[in-house]
Amino acid sequence: MNHKKIISVILVASLLALGGGYVFFEPVKFGICESTYYTSYNFYNYYGHWGEGGNNRVWCNEFFGEGILLALLWSFLPLLLITSALFFVRRETFLAWAKFASISFPLILSVLLYTYNNTPTEGGFGLAGLISDEMLATVFLPPLFVIVSLLIIGIKSWKLKTRSRIENVES
Question: 117 with 67: CB under 8 angstroms?
Fold first, then answer.
């Protein structure tokens, strides 16, 4: 398959993930919830029992807006940025980036999903009491993915450009 088609598929998947994530992040605005307040009667599987009132209440925005959705939004945003840049590079550069992304993107996504759905604790990753795990993962991992991706794309493009110049001079 042509690398431009693969980039297009990744770009469309990123746009769908971001668009779908935004729809579920604003459930009242898009008509998924009638109001911001639901009881556990409406979300039987969330609590595992029926009932209304008391501690069994679920806020609709919290149910749809936290956990998986935020992790997906923060994961696919850098992917959208990088795939937009990949339209302008050669196939060899795309393959070098794809080797990196095929390992790092699922890893970043799994770390974000884990930290957002884990019991909230203060001070993960050696920063006791300063910042929560999900905030730290969100602040560091997506920008790190973008920086490393841009470095890979830039270095590989530069190497290919200098190699083609040398080949043109020799011939």
Answer: yes
